[in-house]
Amino acid sequence: MAVKGRLRPAPAVDAAPAPSQDDIGVEARVVAGILLNAALEKRNGLDEALSQPAARALEPVDRAFARAVAMAALRRLGEIDHILNRRLKKSPPEAVRTLMRIALAQTLVLETPAFAAVSTAVKLAERDPKTRPYKNLVNAVLRGVGREGPGLTTAESNLPDWIAARWKATYGEAALAGLALAAREEPATDLSLKPGVDPAAVAAAVEGEALEGGTVRTGRRGDVASWPGFDDGDWWVQDAAAAVPGRLLDVKPGETALDMCAAPGGKTLQLAAAGASVVALDRSAPRLKRLTQNLERTGLTAEVIAVPAEDWEDARTFDAVLLDAPCTATGTFRRNPEVLRATKPAEVAKLADVQHRLLDVAAERVKPGGRMVYCTCSLEREEGETQIIAFLRRNPAFRTVAADPAALGAPPEALTPEGWLRILPSMWAEHGGLDGFFAARLERVS
Ligand SMILES: C[S@@+](CC[C@H](N)C(=O)[O-])C[C@H]1O[C@@H](n2cnc3c(N)ncnc32)[C@H](O)[C@@H]1O
After folding, report:
1. Is the Cβ atom of 373 under 6 angstroms away from ligand 1?
2. Is the sign of the CA dihedral 239, 245, 250, 251 positive or negative?
3. 383 CB near ligand 1 (under 6 Å)
4. In the chain, what are the domains?
5. Cβ–Cβ < 8 Å for 239, 264
6. Which secondary structure element, helix H or strand E, spans residue 189, and what is its range?
7. Residues annotated within a binding site for S-adenosyl-L-methionine
8. pLDDT for 196-249, tens place per residue?
9. pTM (2 decimals)?
């Protein structure tokens, strides 16, 4: 079933002359194109490009605008290309397409006035000898969309074909439609709170709502470091779904816990906040820096060690082990729309091998009678259910302990017949959705 949707029609482009759109506005749009292409090229491309000189030279407000435009273009790429392709007799050079994608992301998604988006796109086309011959085409296509409207588009067209086919086969047509709708929207920001901090008070301070499970959700934008409670370490940013595996592990004060793939550390903070004595490992020292900063800010403690888990030379075993394994992260498409473009089919199998290996390393660290939670923020079965089925086959010392979604602040429909959690971003639609996660709790019985 195709979900029909109409992008917002752009205001008439001839309505007003451009008010002095100075060169800063133009530069922000250049950077938006750079960010978009970097995100399409490789995983983490957008973040890397944001730290490059072109983006850093912008004022913060322009950099934020450039990022917002690139993110809007990524979320609606299929629809935007569909609108363009209907109006183009043959495909223009990539640089020209980028200009038009950026302009349509502004007019159709961000509601930037059309005269500003179109005039800067034409200005940019003029500036580069490679795009100059296409200046009139850019002008005609964008004005045409403004005049006649974008026409019908489908939310599914924003998903790469191979991913849409996979999710349809795994979750069915109705779920695919819900996932496609979730992928179009910019998500709210979720906060996990330190014990003793009142969710209602934080919700009031950030104009948000307290969700089941204790997460506070806010539509507020901008730099979180300036929000009330940040400096006091009252909370940290963590998607509502990402907070579930930590709760599932259910550590108690005085227990020992190992967070085996810990950085940047949202789950380590949860385990430490629950009173466990936590060891946090990660192979990436730069990623662990954020974890250390968050521990300092929140006044929580953990032993932080930069090492690949399989190389950690330490004989300790633990009451509770959390393996939040490296994965394709396809469940995080609301926050990171580029994951859908960056993930390639071969990567799923490659990461599944890594997860298989790390599960066995994690199992070795669980004390008799202890427990382990395995989770990934992927929607691919190979990185979730298939891993646990295979693990239980080769490790008869472990068995599943069924999750209780109501106690964990997870949607009830996330519970699988096996007692695992399969959270889809299309769930909790009435609250604005949540990231996709798989989580299973296992206990060492011998
Ligand atoms: C999904 S992220 C973890 C997110 C983290 N648990 C959180 O809640 O913020 C996966 C992490 O695994 C780390 N990693 C990958 N391979 C690893 C290994 N062999 N040993 C330890 N960490 C590893 C990566 O550096 C990455 O930080």
Report:
1. no
2. negative
3. no
4. 4-148 (1.10.940.10), 238-444 (3.40.50.150)
5. no
6. strand 189-193
7. 261-267, 282, 324
8. 999 999 999 999 999 989 999 999 998 999 999 999 999 999 999 999 999 999
9. 0.92
